[in-house]
């Protein structure tokens, strides 16, 4: 909505159809004839015979007055700024009329980019400032902008949806922009993610290499000085886009990366928001090495397509987010099964597997001694140690239960290997927890581990609204009970007979009665020494 526009008789003017349709995004600045007047509450606040009108694709016509013809009702520039890739950086002023003050009522592009140099030193008024513009004898003749089309639009509509990865999409997007005449030397997209360790994915295409490089920065990026003073932070925080010409005699060095790009020969740089539907703001940046940088048509094409481009990246990131969240909460193997469609109650398989139940010992006492914060840190170290070792031995952590870890080692075609991997994991966990005491910054921890082997159901159980992907079966129950039994008899690792390839690998404990297990279980205590034959079996 533009300020109210009227002729000398006070009749609101309608936009007039232009003679020629413009097929590309454009900016057109024209001088107005005779006196043009701006009023607020009936009082003249600006009057000029040198006023101009600016037509911009899909934007309302904007009337600009030379600063010298503005009456003394404007404050000094107040520090608020917005960025336009076509016009440059806009500064704002408040409008003071008597006791009333309208904040950010007027804007100007004092250092306008070449495409908008005609309005440099001119002032326009915000639509919500209630300023009435009397155009005098002028009539607006707004260009009729046509639909923007070409290779990029056709590709987005027909082919892009079939690309399987964001890397391939980024490469083809860059190539299509070049094909349509955009003077592009570099394109990057920063897409934020939902991942416990990765802040997002940064896809960077370079025309020199013709390839896409992907970076996955950790959350420490938010505290890194290079990010703190970067266009990525500026745009993703909702502060608007950025356009900087890099070939000027006195270029702006507001962001260090601009100097790096300039040294590589870049002449123009733009960063613009790629908003996702959930409100997160991702960032698209483009750079050019062309002597004249980007044209208005170049940037207009990207700007017009940016919402569609954002949706493609949102689809890619939603899938990556779903996969990373599932892997985080239910494990990699289980997450893949859920993504593969095993999402209904009862979905699952009957498998043979080695089951591990690893419990942190003395946790109640530790929490009392250490305090909640230090105890949670110790608990996280315990979980991290156990999970890493299980994963390194081809197992999967299904869940954390209080201060315990439940893990599964599916047998597949090699039951002996699954048993060996489970046993080696148990020994490695005990050794790693003991070694923590050698680090002055950490505390030595002790655990109790129960191992069993047998048939289990591996799949979804629960209510219709809340499911849990887990293992159900006697082997899982026995593994948990053997861990408890080990605490009472002073053994760190206790296993059932069916987990051992040969009984001589461990110390027999006889047939033991376990809580909620109907029959006695032949149990063995496992020492920390690894039998050479067991090494070779893996």
TrEMBL record:
CDD domains xref list: CHD
Organism: Phaeobacter inhibens
Name by which UniProt lists this protein: Adenylate cyclase, family 3 (Some protein containing HAMP domain protein)
Domain Guanylate cyclase: 354-483
Spans through the membrane: none
Signal peptide from the UniProt entry: none
Stored InterPro entries: A/G_cyclase (IPR001054), Adenylyl/Guanylyl_Cyclase_3/4 (IPR050697), DUF427 (IPR007361), DUF427_sf (IPR038694), Nucleotide_cyclase (IPR029787)
Pfam families referenced in this protein's UniProt entry, alphabetically: Guanylate_cyc, NTP_transf_9
